[in-house]
Every structure is written in C-alpha cells, then in structure tokens.
Amino acid sequence: MTMLDETPLLSVAGLSRYYGERVGCRDVSFEVYPGEVLAIVGESGSGKTTLLNCISTRLEPSAGSVSYRMRDGESRDLYRMSEAERRLLMRTDWGFVHQNPADGLRMTVSAGANVGERLMAVGERHYGRIRDTATHWLSRVEIAADRIDDQPRAFSGGMRQRLQIARNLVTGPRLVFMDEPTGGLDVSVQARLLDLLRGLVNDLGLAAIVVTHDLAVARLLSHRMIVMKDGRVVEEGLTDRVLDDPQAPYTQLLVSSILQV
Amino acid sequence: MSDLVSREAGTVAVRASALSKSFRMHLQGGLELPVVEGASFEVHAGECVVLGGPSGAGKSSILKMLYGNYAATGGEILIRHGEAMVDLVAASPRLVLAIRRETLGYVSQFLRTVPRVAAIDVVAEPLVARGIDAATARERAARTLERLNLPQRLWQLPPATFSGGEQQRVNIARGFITDHPVLLLDEPTASLDAANRRVVIEMIAQKKAQGVAQIGIFHDEEVREAVADRIIDVRGFGPARAA
Prior knowledge:
The complex is a heterodimer of chains A (about 260) and B (about 240).
Chain A: E1 10-19, E2 22-32, E3 37-41, H1 48-55, E4 63-69, E5 75-77, H2 83-92, E6 94-97, H3 101-104, H4 111-121, H5 127-140, H6 157-169, E7 175-179, H7 187-204, E8 207-212, H8 215-221, E9 224-229, E10 232-238, H9 239-244, H10 249-256
Parallel strand pairs in A: 3-8, 3-9, 6-7, 7-8
Antiparallel strand pairs in A: 1-2, 1-4, 4-5, 9-10
Helix pairs in contact in A: 4-5, 4-6, 5-6
Chain B: H1 3-6, E1 12-25, E2 31-44, E3 48-52, H2 59-67, E4 74-81, E5 84-87, H3 93-102, E6 104-107, H4 119-129, H5 134-147, H6 164-176, E7 182-186, H7 194-209, E8 213-217, H8 221-227, E9 230-233
Parallel strand pairs in B: 3-8, 3-9, 6-7, 7-8
Antiparallel strand pairs in B: 1-2, 1-4, 4-5
Helix pairs in contact in B: 4-5, 4-6
C-alpha cells in the first residue's frame, strides 16, 4: 500500500480579494498535492478567475496566504518572495495555460521558438538541443515536425492551444494552472485536447488547477473539485461524488442544468 | 504484500454499520428523500454477496456509497485497505482515490467513455495507474478482451460507437483486470448474450478463488444463482415510509 504524500504542493489559507466594496473571492482555503488535478468550477462572476489569479501570483490578495513547496522541499509564502523569485518560479516550476492561446504565446515567432524560449529562460543555450527538445514537445502535443518554423498565427485554434501547452510543459513544471483550457474551441477539438491533457497529466504526474465552467471538463480531468458561488466555496470533494451526489443547493442547480444529449 | 493477509478466507473485507442515505432535494423546496436506513452487513474475503430486493429498494445507492460515489448520510463503511480497516465514509477524497486505486474496484453498468481512447487502453488504464508498464498492461488487456470475445478489430477503436454489449464487455474487462481485493459489480451482465454471461460467471468464480470479496447487483436470475454465496435483502434497510 502506498502512503499518501502528506505535504501539499500548494496551500491556500483564508484567501480573500476585494475590489473596493465588491467581493472577488472570500475566505478560500484548500490544498493541492503532487500529481493531483483540482477543478475550480462556477459560473461567470463566481470568483473563480480572481481566485486563480491570486494563487498564481498574478493578482495580490487582500487577505490570506498562498504557500508553495519549492523543489528543495521548503514551503514559501508566495507573497513574501521577491519579484525575481516569483518570476523564476513561473518560468520554471509552473505553467499557465490561458483560455486564449494568444495570451500565452508569441504570435509572431515560430512554433519552435515559442517552445524553445522557455528553455532558454532556464539557461539552455545549445541550439541543437533546444530544437530537438522543441520537436519532441511538438510531437507530444500532436503538431507535425514540419510545422516547427511556422508562426502560431498560421495555426488553427486547437493547434495554438496545443502549442501553448507544449510551451508550458517543456521546462518540466510541477504545477500547471489552466484557465478554461478548452473554452472557445469546437467540440471535436475540445475532445482531442482534453484527451491530450489527460494523458500528459497522467504521464508526467503533474499537479494542475483547472478553472472551468464546464462540468464535463471537470469530470474528465480532475480528481477533486471546488464549487464557487458569489466568491465563496459552496462545496468541495471528490469530483464524481460532487457531480453524482451534489449536496449544496447551488451545486444541485448546476448539475441539474446540464443539457443531456 | 499485505494483500496476502487481506485475502485469507474469512477475513472481513468490508463492514457496513448503520449505514444510511437520504437525499435532500434543494430544488424541490428541501424535500428529504430517505432511501437507505440502518444498513449493516459484513463481506468476507473470497465470497460473493448479492444485494437483493425490488428496484427502488436502495441496492444501487448502497453500492454507490460503498464506492464513495454517494456520500453516506450516516453510519460507517470499514474497508480493509492494506493492513488497516479504513472508514470510507469519513475518508478524505485523496484517501478514497488511493483506496480505489489499490483496494476497491467497480464494474458499472454503463461505460463512461473518454473521447479518442482505444478500447484496449481503456481496459489497460487501471493497471497503468497502479504502476504496471504500458506494454504488460496492454498484453493483459488483450487477453481479457479475448476472453470476453470482443473482436480484435475493435481493440484499437474508442468504444463510444460500440454496441451496448460490446461497451459492457470493455467495462467488465477494465473492472476485472486488476487484482483489487474488493470488487463492486453493478449489473455487469445486463446487456450480454448467454455465452458472454457464462464467461463473466467464470470470471467471478475465479476472483472468489483468489480471495476477492465481491458485492454485486444482478437482476438476471441465472447469474445470481450461479455466483451468490449469500443474498442480502436490502428491504430490511428500507426507511420506514410514513404516508
């Protein structure tokens, strides 16, 4: 019997963010363990994007703490690190997959350079190795090797999203944040991307925090989920338990509102 | 390996005590719907226990609570996980997942398909999740699918387009491929022909011989007769329905 790894990778405690009088998110606490995929679900305005931005150092919280276990095993409060340390973390140990690939890619440099750039940021200088690694990652995300010199401008939405994922994973991150990773894609493209993400997360043992309004995406990708409404967590638990036996009135409403096909 | 201890005949694998479930339907003005009350039973290594009773009596709810898929309203479910008896009702989500990975398997009636994943990989996945290398896992998946007479030309295809019976065989193969010491069976033979029903009966018998504790729902009388060591009539756990 394997023992549970009892030290979380990311710990969020009492996190709140206010916009003046208005509540973005209030008193949110949770933990994410290595290799675990957590989905944060809720409708627009529920606070899930505010929360994601606060835990990924993109938006300073009004109260509460976010700590992360560094590669040396030490847990550090993200908002007590220097700006340079935070940037290094984002470039190496973390990934961030935006809903709109244009926000996470450089659209006017080649696909290969988009992937290679993250490697160079962690100190890789050897051109041949960078290109080999980039080719490898493009194939992992099912982009043909002969597209390596094309700019993402010339790619379809699904391909751009896959390229963004390759760019994020090339440095071997331990934690990846995803903001509606399949939003805005055609259904068939979504299915392919979900399957790809699922495989990568399993193979690489990544931890991921996925923000989505799509319960089917949460079901397919996540182990645990958090349901948010009006900036607060209204329910959390094992993904299939939350979806098949929802307890909170709001979760029951969400689940019962899914269109059956 | 602790599996050896847990599989000695007569060892308690699962013990449910005073288990209850009621649904509170917030969209119906907070209506309270009790479905199970005071369910207490034990299942031992090497036996197959069938939950019996008419539909609506709560068989399926009990099975889903045993898997951690439904939250119990009260009571406890002790399951032998490695050396310890662990209460599934109180277990954290991460512990429930660890129990499912190592101890507790589930064969459901319906396959929840993942787009684009080939049938053989759907079957091999639980082995890969337990750390077995992909080639060995596929080899064992192939043998299991062969045994269930799933035509080889289907193995590389995603099961979404398969017939009900074919999907169910993929599901059965996936559920039986691991060596989980506890297996939950939710009508695994519902859409199978006679020949494949017999294969499943054999597979259940083989699991018993290996010391696996099995708890199932079977509407098919022939299958039930063939596999059940004991029948637990869940009407005994029905809520007292006041009109």
